[in-house]
Amino acid sequence: MPKHRQSLTLNLLQAREVAMSFFRPSLKDIGLTEQQWRVVRILSQQGELEINRLADLACILKPSMTGVLARMETAELVERRRSEHDQRRVLVKLTAAGERCFESMSGRMEENYERLQERYGAEKLQTLLVLLNELKTLKR
Amino acid sequence: MPKHRQSLTLNLLQAREVAMSFFRPSLKDIGLTEQQWRVVRILSQQGELEINRLADLACILKPSMTGVLARMETAELVERRRSEHDQRRVLVKLTAAGERCFESMSGRMEENYERLQERYGAEKLQTLLVLLNELKTLKR
DNA sequence: AAAAATCAGTTAGCATGTTAATTATCTTAT
DNA sequence: ATAAGATAATTAACATGCTAACTGATTTTT
């Protein structure tokens, strides 16, 4: 038995770094940070969301999200409004420009994904995604 | 066919968040950040390392590592010295206090790992680690 | 050997991670 | 109806992520 087993969390981090290397160049080209792209992608799929939910889905803490959204609002990628029913809540959605940003990038990101899948293996990729989702079910 | 497949990188991030939730409380108790613990753990296993190598293993960029090590040096967890052969290189190792820090934490971290493994499944955990390591081989 | 290129680490500047405290709003208990 | 409690978001303060530029030391080129 090994004295030190390998760290799951470090391996998840290192593996993610490798995966990100397939996508980072494209993000750099359009001047979006990883976090901003996550927000664009999620809002594109889910439509208008409140900040709590968006932060949870994007793995961005709420205090960080405040700044991320402020900069994206300046860049006119998203717009915020307060909910009528509950004045505490803030709802966020993509602007038309934000939608176009996603559309113009999605093809290229798909190509990057294909490159990764080709080198890694489609079945292995599917298995990995299943295992990751099962790990996520341990939340709370 | 789904219009939007799920994002591998986001799933890796979300899964890591769940995994970290098993360890964060322990880190908080001793006042170490995630990054500092990674440095302690790696130096404990590998002994003295140069900064480039340490940064690569710990998934911490060199500019960040400068600050991390400065704070850990102030806390007297690590010590730095320049290599005799190559004055550009800086070598880092744990102090005696740093070693004790690791020793006093490793048991508890191991318990956390057991809890995770018990809930997730030992075989699944092994499979996941294998798949992650295979993904890491795509580096470069 | 001297200049140019390379390399290790740091510094600088801004974006984000993280926790605690704060503000404004809403809900619940009395 | 009002005060206490809970909730959503922000602010503040410091640590880290990230890129580019910079410094000093080593290697390569000419």
Automatic annotation (TrEMBL), chains A, B:
Signal peptide: none annotated. The keyword Amino-acid biosynthesis does not apply. Residues 5-137 form the HTH marR-type domain. The keyword DNA-binding applies. InterPro entries: HpaR/FarR, HTH_MarR-typ, MarR/SlyA-like, Tscrpt_reg_MarR-type_CS, WH-like_DNA-bd_sf, WH_DNA-bd_sf. NCBIfam families: HpaR. This is Homoprotocatechuate degradation operon regulator HpaR.
